[in-house]
Amino acid sequence: MGSLLRLILVFVILGALAAFFMGYRVRDGHLIDPNGTIASSRKLPEVDTAKARDAGAAIGDKVAVGAAAAQHALSNAALTGKIKAKIALDDTLKASSVSVESNDGAVTLSGTVASTAQHTRVVQLARETDGVKSVTDHLVVR
Questions:
Q1: DSSP codes, the chain
Q2: What percent of the chain has pLDDT over 70?
């Protein structure tokens, strides 16, 4: 959440600094270009600060919700990735075809393994992974 908001804030500040150092200014409600002439013939509109503040708060709320959802998805993907990496690196599981899904620490294993020893090892690897709260086993021994 905070990183996305910080990134947006950095871009806004960098844009304002670039305009400032290029010589653009606001004077008497008009945008003044680097040559000192009015860049726009019409006056800049008055800003309703209360309305802008409300709109900013609404956008901030939406960004927070989106960031929380993204963090949740990344957390699930990271847990799934950890378990898949453990399975892929285990030499005793080369003949297995295991699918891993996770949601809030609840891991579901499905697919096929060649023996009961492989079945036991896959479940063990999943259970010993940090962040796993429960393991649902849908593995089939062929």
A1: -HHHHHHHHHHHHHHHHHHHHHT-EEETTEEE-TTSSBS-SSPPPPP-HHHHHHHHHHHHHHHHHHHHHHHHHHHHHHHHHHHHHHHHH-GGGTT-EEEEEEETTEEEEEEEESSHHHHHHHHHHHHTSTT--EEEEEEEE-
A2: 87
Mean pLDDT score across all residues of the chain: 86
Q: What is the pLDDT of residues 44-84, one digit of tens each?
A: 677 788 988 999 999 999 999 999 999 999 999 999 999 99
Q: How far is CA 81 from CA 4, 112, 133, 135, in A?
A: 23, 19, 16, 15
Q: Identify any residues that bridge with 102 across adjacent strands, giving them in sequence order.
A: 107
User: What residues form DSSP beta bridges with 113?
Assistant: 141
Distance, in Å, from the CA atom of 132 to the CA atom of 79, rounded to the nearest integer, reads: 8
Going by their DSSP bridges, the two strands 30-32 and 25-27 should be labelled as antiparallel
Nearest CA to 90 out of 56, 123, 58 is that of 123
Distance between CA 25 and CA 38 in Å, rounded? 10
